[in-house]
Amino acid sequence: MKVGIDAGGTLIKVAYADGGATHFAKYPIAEIGQVAEWINGLQNCEVCLTGGKSGVLVSMLEKSVQEMVEFEATHLGVQVLLERMGRTDEAYLVTNVGTGTSIHCVQDNAQERLGGTGIGGGTLIGLSHLLTGITSFDEIVEHAKRGSRERIDLKVKHIYEGKEPPISGELTASNFGQDLFSISHELSKEELLATVIGLVGETVSTVSVHAARQCRSSTIVYIGSSFIDNVLLKEVVTSYTILRGSTPLFPDNGEYSGAVGALSVL
Ligand code: ATP
Ligand code: MG
Asked: Up-side HSE of residue 38: CA atoms within 13 Å toward CB?
């Protein structure tokens, strides 16, 4: 069996294959000990690790494994996943919305990190928890789906009252920027969570679209576990990316890019 593992700040992603199809699994980082035990118990296996917590995982293993740099693994993995979707793009950006967000340009068969932002999946969970007390990612996403940002986000048209704005009035002028002092007690979980997702989605797509100016392509491949079953985040990112003139793409199993890349070198 061949096993590729991306141990990130929040989740451990595993891609494994025994000749045939690739299988996927993910575990919270708190279960790193169980993942190590699973690997230690495997016979006749080759393992390649990547991600910020791979050093911790290596220290728990009783067998020797390969390691690779996270950005290279992600680049290779995205290539494999795009090919599986029948795509042959030679140049694109990759925006990995993990715990934090990292943006890369892929062209001429090499990746270059263009930048990133601390606004990412960690922000999504952290701010959501502070505002509502909820701890489960699935629950946050479920509530957010039913929420409206109307009363919380300030749009350009709200500032340009009675006057034609120089840019689309529908753009967000200020996330959480409405006069909230008088209504803070009556805002629902759904409204607050939808607005947190709006903040994260608009930030990662805006930063990505700006970064696209340094890359030959304007196709932005969005990956990372923040998008798992997260319809609202995908919607916000899709519409903002298109509005700013780029093309968004969400590969199937994109959250496993690093793990698939690690698996691909074995
Ligand atoms: P990094 O790459 O920044 O080191 P990571 O690889 O662990 O972190 P991802 O797994 O891509 O990051 O994404 C983590 C984010 O995915 C979380 O911050 C959260 O928003 C979201 N998420 C999705 N499913 C879960 C889950 N079951 N538990 C916790 N977070 C989840
Ligand atoms: Mg990661």
From this structure: 15
Per the annotation, the verdict on 235 as an active-site residue is no
Within 6 A (CB) of ligand 1 lie 8-11, 28, 51-52, 98-100, 121-122, 124-125, 137, 224-226, 228, 255
Residue in 70, 191, 202, 255 annotated catalytic = 70
Mode of pairing for the β-strands spanning 101-107 and 92-97 = antiparallel
Residues 18 and 26: their CA atoms lie apart, in Å, by: 18
Say whether both 76 and 148 belong to one domain: no
H or E element, residue 78: helix 70-84
Burial class (CB in 10 A: 0-12, 13-18, 19+), 57: buried
* CATH number, residue 7: 3.30.420.40
CA atoms in the 13 A half-sphere facing the CB of 204: 38
**Gap between the Cα atoms of 163 and 54, Å rounded:** 55
The model's pLDDT over 8-63, given as tens digits with 9 standing for 90+, comes to: 999 999 999 998 899 999 999 999 999 999 999 999 999 999 999 999 999 999 99
Please state the atom number of ligand 1 nearest to the C-alpha of residue 258.
6
ipTM of the complex as predicted? 0.99
Query: What residues contact residue 260 under an 8 Å CB cut-off, 6+ apart?
Result: 4, 15, 22, 76, 77, 80, 81, 253
- HEC string of 213-224? HHCCCCEEEEEC
Q: Which domain holds residue 205?
A: 117-250
